[in-house]
Design brief:
The structure is a single chain. The chain is of the alpha+beta class and about 375 residues long. The chain has a single domain, classed as Cytochrome p450 (Orthogonal Bundle). It is built from 16 helices and 14 strands. The protein has helices at about 1-10, 30-35, 50-55, 70-85, 85-110, 115-120, 125-135, 140-150, 160-185, 190-195, 205-220, 220-235, 240-245, 250-260, 295, 330-350; strands at about 10-15, 25, 45, 115, 195-200, 200, 265-270, 275-280, 280-285, 290, 350-355, 360, 370, 375-380. Strands 1-2-10-7-3 form a five-stranded mixed sheet. The protein has a three-stranded antiparallel sheet with strand order 4-14-11. Bound molecules: protoporphyrin IX containing FE (HEM). Pfam families: p450. One of its GO terms (biological process) is cholesterol catabolic process. GO terms for molecular function: cholest-4-en-3-one 26-monooxygenase activity; heme binding; iron ion binding; steroid hydroxylase activity.
């Protein structure tokens, strides 16, 4: 489908029927997607950065949460957030990721059969985000339940109202924890957010809690879905699994190919600020424009044979983490999580075969599986 869009209608106007929402532009070529990502002056995220919010006309965290803020405040908040992703903060978090992933994969191999999504992948990114934010051990179970309710995209019939309540509970939780950290700062991201100042002024309470929320949204599902899609791709391509196991390809290169292949965040979007031409089409001020990573990462102009999963590719320039001013600040951590998973598989697993149907999630934003039953045989 995307190949057809890229060649026949690369900058495509999609009319929405049956709902009182505007139509939107669909960009499928790598070069057009990059052009919009790199320009946060003519294309803003302040009215939302995914279809769900863009079509509703806005995002309640606009101007406060990094992903939906632009201009000077975005640069200022991003500088604070980048402190939170500095190697000093990430090092102990990544050490725990490796340890945790290794233990989970080893346990799954010992059991023989597992649901890789539920038994392994589900336990890594949320725990990592909780480590990063400094969430106390006793609160983690509750946090997991709330994030699942707030963000879960996997059930077609999930209740929108319950999700809103859970989202508010999460914000309330972080407001309380932020108040504690302000009095008694530690070496975690929440303490960095509560004690940092911009031009001598502390961040507002809303900025602190929305950005904690942003780390949860950004850090959980995308990493989890990448791991699950990565394992699935390796199972479906035994030759690539062999190359990884015998060291013919590097883990770093394999991580990039997994990210390109999985493209867990299928799209992001922007609102056009002023009339602008892209790929020969006139996009008008206030139009909604969507950037399809899941197409751009398979663009024939970007790489040869995009439809083949090849761990030995020269690390490409995929847009799985976006590009430009909003480029994912969690990219280093996301890559470390996928690398830890590939290393653990290579160490403990000889072979993995499907043991039931994979269950795809239901979303126009994220792509991947919520269930991946496998039988694993141990490496000697
Ligand atoms: C932004 C993807 C992991 C936090 C983004 C964007 C993409 C992305 C495509 C750009 C959004 C835009 O342009 O509107 C991914 C993928 C990940 C991942 C594929 C894992 C494989 C993480 C992690 C964290 C994180 C682990 C935090 C712990 C964020 C934040 C932003 C962001 C806060 C907003 C940045 C800004 O607007 O300046 N991510 N992400 N992400 N991501 Fe990630």
């Amino acid at each position: 489908m995307w190949r057809r869009f890229r060649s026949a209608s690369p900058v495509h106007w999609h009319e929405v029927t049956g709902r009182a929402v505007p139509g939107f532009w669909v960009l499928s070529r790598y070069r057009d997607v990059m052009e919009v990502y790199r320009d946060n002056k003519r294309f803003t995220s302040e009215y939302g950065n995914v279809l769900a919010t863009l079509l509703e006309g806005g995002d309640s965290a606009a101007g406060k949460m990094l992903a939906v803020t632009d201009g000077r405040r975005h640069r200022e908040l991003r500088n604070v957030m980048l402190k939170a992703f500095a190697p000093r903060v990430l090092q102990p978090v990544i050490a725990k990721v490796r340890e945790r992933t290794d233990e989970l994969v080893r346990a799954a191999v010992e059991a023989g059969d597992c649901d890789f999504a539920r038994d392994v992948a589900e336990h890594i990114p949320m725990a990592t985000v909780a480590d990063l934010l400094g969430v106390p051990a006793g609160d983690r179970e509750e946090l997991l339940v709330l994030t699942k309710e707030a963000l879960s995209t996997e059930d077609e019939g999930s209740c929108a109202q319950e999700a809103v309540v859970a989202r508010n509970e999460l914000l309330f939780y972080f407001a309380q924890l932020a108040a504690e950290r302000r009095k008694d700062p530690r070496d975690d991201v929440l303490s960095i957010l509560t004690t940092s100042t911009i031009n001598g002024e502390p961040l507002t309470e809303q900025e602190i809690i929305f950005n904690c929320y942003s780390i949860i949204i950004g850090g959980d599902e995308t990493s989890r879905l990448s791991m699950i899609s990565g394992v699935r791709a390796l199972m479906e391509h035994p030759e690539q699994w062999r190359r990884l196991r015998c060291g013919e390809v590097t883990v770093e290169g394999a991580v990039e190919e997994v990210l390109r292949w999985a493209s867990p965040a299928m799209h992001f979007g922007r609102r056009v600020r002023e009339d602008v031409e892209i790929g020969g089409q006139l996009l008008r001020a206030d139009d909604v424009v969507t950037l399809w990573n899941s197409s751009a990462n398979y663009d024939e102009d970007l790489l040869a044979e995009p439809a083949s999963f090849d761990l030995g590719r020269k690390p490409g320039k995929h847009v799985a983490f976006g590009y430009g001013p909003h480029f994912c600040p969690g990219a280093y951590l996301g890559r470390a999580e996928i690398a830890a998973m590939l290393c653990a598989l290579r160490t403990h697993v000889a072979n993995a075969v499907p043991n039931g149907p994979a269950r795809p999630i239901h979303s126009n934003f994220l792509h991947g599986y919520s269930s991946l039953p496998l039988s694993l045989s141990p490496a000697r």
